[in-house]
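Obj: model holo form, ligand = magnesium ion.
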Amino acid sequence: MTEAPAFSQAPVLSLTGIHKQFNGVPALRDVALALRPGEIHALMGQNGAGKSTLIKVLTGVYTADSGEMRLAGRAIRPASPLEAQRLGISTVYQEVNLCPNLSVAENIFSGRYPRCGPAQGFRIDWAKARRDARALLARLEVDIDVTQLLSSYSVAVQQMVAIARALGLSSTVLILDEPTSSLDDDEVKSLFAVLRRLRGEGLAILFVTHFLNQVYAVSDRITVLRNGGWVGEWAAADLPPQALISAMVGRELAAQATGHAQLPVIDEAARPVLEAQAIGQAGQLQPVDLRVRPGEVVGLAGLLGSGRTELARLLFGLAAPDCGSLSVDGVAVTFANPADAVRHGLALCPEERKTDGIVAELSLRENIALALQARRGVRNTLSRAEQTALAERFVKALGIKTASVDTPIGLLSGGNQQKALLARWLATEPRLLILDEPTRGIDVAAKQEIMDEILRLARGGMAVLFISSEMNEVVRISHRIAVLRERRKVGELPAGSDEDAVYELIAAES
Ligand code: ADP
Ligand code: MG
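Output (holo structure tokens):
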């Protein structure tokens, strides 16, 4: 937690009653925001909540349909980013667009070079450009030769140059939309040091991130948006992480996200949907026993390379076991390929959604319909209307944020792509769903929703095999946890086990 800021100050920038629609669909509904001088303010919300839209309104990229903006008490209405910049509102966008082949000074001033007077024919005033570039960088505690090529400096320094480019010397507000997504831990630390320094100079800083720990590391205040609406504004010290997640997701998640979820009750005597006996493959996996009953979530825990994905592949017909046997509902089966497994009611959501999962050029609708279509065969194609109905049903059920089901899936956020993949396999109405890292690389609120969905499916009787590197997730929603180490199953833990128990088993001498 950072030291307590003085909140008594009046906001330097305030927005009230902001509305913005795109093609009749509201993206912002009655949103407010107040930034005080000398504060770091986190703007939080799930993907699609409206954060970027609000920032674009603030910086003149979009014009609000209605609402009011005041800067130092004066009503403003910037019509372009340049105008916003002139007013003292500077922005660093998610994608930093710098030119490695230009000098540092050129990167900072390209498009808005200082000019000499009429006597010199309004030539670019290079001496002033260099001087101002040095002054801007000095403000960030960066002391480099501004005539050198940008490419001669590290990513962290380049990020500072991007901030220097955004910051005019007279900036009062600095806005950063996910500035840390491509930085490593040390680079994030140095960025935060700079933000604190700028805060100390009285700048108001608005900061968007997906990483909760970063929010608490630097922010004084937090504003939360949900579905385009304003949820609230808090001092960071007054909003514990659980309450923040609840505000973002809109449900009471306090009990869930720490400790153990309320698990669906399962019939211990029920016949397993899938049972593996001593299934293995030379060089890939030592023989493993595993059973999953209806309504049961079985977690597969282990470190990277422990054999979790290999086991999933053997169970799903993606790899051929060279020992052991499989049965579905007590009947022996062999899967020559995944299609066999799908016919027996299995589904596998793969780990690499970019390479094995989504087809980026196809629409959300086509991506969702893919597995069901494959299962039905070419002679029984789903009509476009059927595909649309199917996709719309899952968009609603899983809360997928998209303009339409015809949007190319590549344009959706990671969390929404992951939900679409889940939808693809749920559409086949599987009896056993294998999920390989379904929460990797998605934001914290989307993780919660995916895990809620897994429990909901289990409650409906689906058997689930859940693979995740996030041990807290595995212990939270699993009825049983099968632990793998060095391509061997080393034990099983019951529901209610804690993360330490899993790590102990992983670390134990064999
Ligand atoms: P966030 O940054 O919080 O993830 P966004 O502001 O990008 O959210 O999006 C909010 C909503 O507005 C989403 O439903 C998104 O699809 C929609 N949206 C954003 N920009 C546009 C646009 N240019 N045209 C149509 N819809 C948009
Ligand atoms: Mg955004």
